[in-house]
Amino acid sequence: MKKKARRIIDAASTTGNPDEAFIQLNQAYNSAAPDVQQVLARSEDAGEIVKNAATWAARPLADYDPETAVSDQGDAATTMMNLEKLTEGANPSLAVDLVTAAMPTIKAANSRRQEEIGGQLIGLNGQADMMKVINRISGTPGADAIVEGFAELGGYHPNSIPPAIADGSSLDYPIAVAAQSSSASSTFVTQNITPGVKQYATGTVNRDVVAYATHMQELQWLIKNHGAAMTPEQLAQAIKDYKTQKGHRMDSNGEAPRRQHCSQR
To answer: Per residue of the chain (265 residues), what is the pLDDT tens digit?
Structure first.
């Protein structure tokens, strides 16, 4: 097992480029036996390949200067494009490790932006790629922290997030924004999430979509009936409690159906 894992790591390392090394590591990981995957998951050398790929992906934001940047949101868009490229077809666990390693650079760039000029770090194109990445890691251990990290950065472009929802993307990010936003209210879900879910459900009629839409209707009811009377903090806690209480149902009627449908597209 260790020898097989070593060969995989050595082969990936010889590519010379961090992005290509990660892609090769992932391809070998996906085709490896479970016991070899376990060895790779614990390997510091394999972890170094993942970290190097994260550094490569986030390099546009490593030295980001909001006041001198040629493009207002271009560096963030390139970073998200890199992460989208690397996570396409990636094992969800490796993808989580990759994005987790890139998050400190992304957050540091956002902090500099807020201190100097303000505004959103990640714009239209970056958010579109972000939703693809989140969709690929949804339900994987460690993914929630990533989603919450992106939600803390802010950003809900009408031409990126709602279309992604209508296409069946994960609702993890929209729900995280609803929970964290200081402007969270009973209208957020009805105005920003529900229309996309309805469009998705209307476009494809099957049991999975029906279950997915039903789950969102329940979440909508919670916020509509209780959100207006809550502080943002209370609303965030209510959503968290709801998701915890509905955990088993979300597995069968929420996240699992969405992932199953997306895998069929």
So the answer is: 788 999 999 999 999 899 999 999 999 999 999 999 999 999 999 999 999 999 999 999 998 999 888 788 999 999 999 999 999 999 999 999 999 999 999 999 999 999 999 999 999 999 999 999 999 999 899 999 999 999 999 889 989 998 988 888 888 898 888 877 645 555 777 778 778 777 776 665 454 556 566 656 666 666 666 555 666 667 667 666 666 665 544 444 445 445 454 544 4
Distance separating alpha carbons of residues 97 and 41, to the nearest angstrom: 10
- CA 153, CA 148: separation in Å to the nearest integer? 9
262's torsion region: left (phi>0), alpha (psi -120 to 50) or beta? alpha
- CA dist 255 → 150, 249, 262 (Å): 19, 9, 11
Q: Where are the domains of the chain?
A: 1-146, 156-265
List alpha helices for 88-206, DSSP H. Answer: 92-116, 124-137, 143-153, 161-166, 172-180, 186-192, 194-203
**How many Cα atoms occupy the beta-carbon half-sphere of 264 within 13 Å?**
11
